[in-house]
Amino acid sequence: MRLTSYTNYALRTLQIAALRHPALSRVDDVVLVHGMARPHVAKIVHELGRAGFLRTVRGRGGGFGLGRPAEQIVIGDVVRLTEGRMAVVECFEPETNTCPLIGICRLSRALNEATRAFMAVLDGITVQDISANRAQLLDRISPLADDMADTEPQGAR
User: Fold this and answer.
1) Among candidates 48, 15, 56, which has minimal Cα distance to 138?
2) d(CA 110, CA 89)
3) Are 131 and 124 in contact (CB under 8 A)?
4) Whole-angstrom Cα distance, residue 85 to residue 66?
5) Which fold has domain 5-149?
6) Where are the domains of the chain?
7) Is the dihedral of CA 43, 48, 54, 57 positive or negative?
8) Triad 47, 22, 64: Cα angle to 5°
9) Which tens digits make up the pLDDT trace of 92-143?
């Protein structure tokens, strides 16, 4: 399985929001840490905001934060939002399928089962899980660590 970079950065954006919680993060924080183009991050934040995964605040001092508690944001749900249909092979797309083996192919059945297993694992992980090692993550993204230290819960480091 391979996820798009869009999905990867959407998950990283949520992770940064969780690390900064309850403070707001900025698009520039994600740009700084992951070296992405600002318009790309802005698009991700907008989509995650529309879906309720993030809340956005406009204006001076604005930014984005988690739209719901980190333990309620399921990674599988984010992947479904950003990836759309998980059509690993063409026969998973009824509208464009040209394969004459549909319905009898053991390979497509196995790939379908693998996709379901992949998503089942992601459905068992939350944003809280991917940001639980807060101190290690902050050490790795040192350009933001000093700024984020002000929002760190007591005893987290």
Assistant:
1) 15
2) 11
3) no
4) 25
5) Arc Repressor Mutant, subunit A (1.10.10)
6) 5-149
7) positive
8) 25
9) 777 777 778 777 888 888 988 999 999 999 999 999 999 999 889 988 887 5
